Amino acid sequence: MVICEHNSNSITCPAGHLIQIASASYGRTSKGTCWNILNRDTNCKSSTSLNIVKSICDGNNACSLEATNRVYGDPCVGTYKYLTVVYICHESDEKSLIICEHYSHSLTCPDDKKLEIVSANYGRTAPSSGGTCPTSLDMDTNCRAPTSSSIVQSQCEGKSTCSLRASNDVYGDPCVGTYKYLRVVYKCSSIG
User: Fold this and answer.
1) 139-164: per-residue pLDDT in tens?
2) Which residues form the SUEL-type lectin domain (predicted)?
């Protein structure tokens, strides 16, 4: 998938499948892709592209991506850039939950299964234009509370149900002034 600068596009997998990002690059490595008169620098890549795209899309059934300097920085000023993403849709028993800031939600597994936390992040890694906890306070989309996974694991791992709250009181405030959310990827695993 290629998204030319200042545009957006979505990745959607079939039901029961999740996105796995294989590669992502924001910049310009070809004169012909997303042709523009401002395509002189063809050795241009944002070093954060892969991590940002993975944080927005990995483990979700669908995600929305923007090709903008606001998300990835500007690796080559004055050059018209594009975002290239390679992904696969894989069948999975993983589930993803997003809890907007100031709200609570429960994770629940059937009685014969226990929660296994795959990943968690409190912050913001997606612009609200993609539909994730809409707000005008989404300037920082590279926002992660470093203790998110360990806190969620300590509250939920190995239990059949747990309640989580998306709050600065729990995770700290990794990006002051940005409306945040808690994204949890989890599985329900068999006991024993």
Assistant:
1) 788 899 999 999 999 999 999 999 99
2) 3-90, 99-189
In which domain, by residue range, is 19 found? 2-91
Residue ranges of alpha helices (H) inside 32-182 are 49-57, 69-72, 148-156, 168-171
Q: What is the CATH number of the domain that holds 40?
A: 2.60.120.740
Which residues does residue 89 pair with via DSSP β-bridges, in sequence order? 19
Say how far residue 143 (Cα) sits from the centre of its chain.
Answer: 10
- 58 and 114 inside one domain: no
* 122 CA to centre of own chain: 11
CA distance 38 to 30: 12
Helix (H, G, I), strand (E, B) or coil at 103: coil
Q: Say what the pLDDT of residue 39 is.
A: 83
Both 60 and 82 in one domain: the answer is: yes
156 in the same domain as 76: no
The letter for the amino acid at 23 is S
Which pLDDT tens digit goes with each residue over 165-188? 999 999 999 999 999 999 998 988
The whole-angstrom separation of Cα 143 and Cα 11 is 22
CA angle 87, 189, 184 (to 5 degrees): 50
